[in-house]
Amino acid sequence: MADTLQFDLVTPERKLSSVPVTEVQIPGAEGDMTVMAGHAPTITTLRPGILKAIGPQGHLTFAVTGGFAEASGPSLSVLAEQAIPVDEANATIFDELVAEARSLADAALPEDRAVADKKVADLIALRAAAGY
Q: Would the CA dihedral through 44, 12, 123, 77 be positive or negative?
């Protein structure tokens, strides 16, 4: 059996997962990455996307809206702004996330508009990736 690492996914509201896994695919701000046991210590920001954890218990799939991930050899901790198990999500949830991001983008200062518009685009892509 492949080596495992401890995977923890938390949001400000709750802990969503704390399990041993063989790999976690995360939507990094600089590009997607896969973390496995023994990964070099890394801290990265997350963009909206699909996070997949694969382990002895099967696949866990979450839609995350952003946050941070810290890999340190035997563990990976993900601190997500928001995370929703994809099997619990629905079109209404994604529509609300996109509408909130659009509202924030409309109110953004001109110098912050490009970042805000990218977040809207990323959330629209996340909705499509989740099948909604």
A: positive
For the domain spanning 5-85, the CATH number is 2.60.15.10
Tell me the pLDDT tens digit for each residue of 88-100. 999 999 999 999 9
Tokens 């695919």 found at: 25
- pTM here is 0.89
